[in-house]
Each structure stands twice: as structure tokens, then as C-alpha cells.
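Lab meeting, item 3. Inverse folding demo.
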């Protein structure tokens, strides 16, 4: 079985795969100060709960946007599994052609999402990931990663209102049901949630036009450009916009399993 780590700025999502089938997943808070032994204890407890033997793990793959976590996870892999983890980094086989000005600047999570979305839906496809940042990625019909956009995540926007104003409170991120609100909490929810929805719709529409007008990747009708959402807030945003063709909560983990299949070398 494969143990996959998707390390984001706020959370680490961990998946256990049997071939390409995800059997279990769990989420912990990202903490750059955790040691290899702490990760070992966390994974061991989860495995014990799910009745998984540590010896069942054949390999480990890691995608991280937090460099400080990588050393601990690599040490954890060696100490507790005797494995040298595969790390998603420049040079790894993905099947995606990176068209970024500097390919090294593309976050590994964005590439992993692109791999999974293209595998499941083909191209052209737009992927929106609702994490600490909200990221937009476009992939052509020829498996070219065209680029995208990065915006503050919806939680960041909410926290900024609370931290940078004297009287505004912390709020739960939920749809208030209307835009003309009569109390402060609902007014903040309307501004943050509907503002994010409006941003999503605008950027998706603009990206679709750019994909259609880009002669180098071939013209197409905007109806065949799939839009895939992932991340914690994707379902709520989808309910308010109907912008997504599909919501894939485990897209990044599934992408890691696909990349592992492309790079599996029993001689390692």
C-alpha cells in the first residue's frame, strides 16, 4: 500500500492507497516544529484505529508547500518504514508539461491537482483549490499546465476582518442566505462568502475566454472546458455559484497516487 502526504499551509492530509484506490484518509494540523517521532506516533495511532499494519506500507510519497515539514517527514519515512519517500519536486514524472515562465515556482500541490483533474476529466480543465490560498489552475487539452491565479483564501479574508478592525468579531464561514443583512455577523458572512463567490465566477469566466482565444492550445467551446473544485470550502461555493462540473474532495491525494504510479521503481 501507498502512504501519501499532502502538506498544506494549514493542514496535512494523509491518505492510504491500495493501488489507486484510497482506503483511508485523515487530517492533522500543519506544524513545522513536529519531529519525525511525533509524526510516527500520530500515524501509528491512526493505523491502530483503522487496523492497518505499518508493514503493509510499500512506499511513501510527499507533496509539500511547507519546506520546514519535509525534513521531518523524510526522516519519519526512513525511521518508521525504512523507505526513501518520493517527493513531488522538479524532475519528477507527472505527464504534465509546465508552461510557467519558471516551472520551479509552481507549487507542488497545483501540479498534483492538475495531474488528477486531467486524468479524470481530460482537458481543457480549470482546477480551483480552496486552501489557505484559493488557487486557480488551467490545463490544456494537450496536458499543458498553462498557469493560473492565486488569491487569498476565504478563511484568510475572514480572519483579516477580525484582526485588522477594532470591533468586528470572528465569524463562522457560512452562507447567510441574503446580501442585505441586519446584523454585523451576517453582514460579514455576506461580504466574505458572496465576495469569494463573485471572484470565483469572474476568474473562471475570464480563464475560459483566454483558453478559447489562445490559438496555440486550440480553440474550443467554453462548454467543454471542465471546472473542478477541491478543498474544504468547495461544496459551499458550488451551492452558491453552480460553477463547478464536479467537486473532488480528495483530488490532491488522488493525484499523488497517480504520480507515484508514474514514478514507481522497485529498484529504489
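The presenter then showed the designed sequence:
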Amino acid at each position: 500500500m501507498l502512504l501519501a502526504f499532502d502538506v498544506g499551509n494549514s493542514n496535512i492530509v494523509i491518505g492510504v492507497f491500495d493501488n489507486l484506490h484510497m482506503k483511508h484518509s485523515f487530517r492533522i494540523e500543519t506544524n513545522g516544529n513536529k519531529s519525525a517521532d511525533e509524526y510516527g506516533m500520530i500515524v501509528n495511532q491512526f493505523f491502530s484505529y483503522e487496523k492497518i499494519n505499518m508493514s503493509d506500507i510499500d512506499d511513501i510519497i510527499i507533496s509539500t508547500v511547507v519546506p520546514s515539514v519535509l525534513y521531518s517527514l523524510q526522516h519519519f519515512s526512513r525511521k518508521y518504514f525504512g523507505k526513501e519517500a518520493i517527493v513531488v519536486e522538479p524532475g519528477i514524472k507527472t505527464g504534465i508539461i509546465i508552461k510557467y515562465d519558471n516551472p520551479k515556482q509552481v507549487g507542488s500541490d497545483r501540479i498534483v491537482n492538475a495531474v488528477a483533474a486531467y486524468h479524470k476529466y481530460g482537458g481543457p480543465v480549470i482546477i480551483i483549490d480552496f486552501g489557505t490560498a484559493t488557487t486557480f489552475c488551467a490545463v490544456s487539452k494537450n496536458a499543458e499546465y498553462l498557469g493560473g491565479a492565486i488569491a487569498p483564501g476565504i478563511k484568510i479574508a475572514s480572519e483579516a476582518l477580525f484582526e485588522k478592525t477594532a470591533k468586528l468579531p470572528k465569524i463562522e464561514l457560512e452562507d447567510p442566505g441574503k446580501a442585505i443583512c441586519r446584523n454585523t455577523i451576517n453582514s460579514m458572512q455576506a461580504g466574505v462568502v458572496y465576495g469569494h463567490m463573485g471572484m470565483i465566477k469572474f476568474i473562471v469566466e475570464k480563464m475560459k475566454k483566454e483558453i478559447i482565444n489562445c490559438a496555440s492550445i486550440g480553440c474550443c467551446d467554453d462548454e467543454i472546458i471542465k471546472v473542478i473544485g477541491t478543498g474544504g470550502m468547495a461544496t459551499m461555493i458550488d451551492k452558491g455559484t453552480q460553477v463547478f462540473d464536479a467537486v473532488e474532495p480528495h483530488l490532491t491525494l488522488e493525484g499523488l497516487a497517480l504520480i507515484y504510479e508514474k514514478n514507481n521503481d522497485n529498484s529504489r
